[in-house]
Write a structure and sequence with these properties.
Layout (H helix, E strand, L loop, with lengths): L2 H4 L15 H11 L3 H63 L1
């Protein structure tokens, strides 16, 4: 186990924390080791940076999922279009034979 994460509270070791860059987690751990007066100034800034990183990670994850879903639907639409074209050509040949 990583020494930085072992000192973290369990809530920060959750999958959501994995979206926070390791550098920010290390910075937050170092800030917690500082004297109280310095930590009081820096800790809110580090927490805000971590929250923003989590938000960006979730947004990026949602965008990736949406893109993957779009690609899947586009592939299905192309497949349907190909089948429809084949059916149309088959019906055309059938009509031409009867005429």
């Amino acid at each position: 186990m990583n020494p930085t994460t072992s000192a973290m509270p369990p809530s920060l070791q959750s999958p959501a924390a994995s979206s926070v860059p390791a550098e920010l987690l290390a910075l937050r751990a170092k800030i917690r080791a500082l004297p109280d007066d310095v930590r009081a100034d820096l800790e809110p800034l580090a927490e805000d940076a971590c929250e923003q990183a989590k938000f960006r990670g979730r947004a990026l994850s949602l965008a990736r999922e949406a893109l993957e879903q779009f690609r899947l639907e586009l592939s299905a639409a192309r497949f349907d279009l190909d089948i429809t074209r084949r059916e149309r050509e088959g019906f055309r040949r059938l009509i031409e034979r009867e005429v």
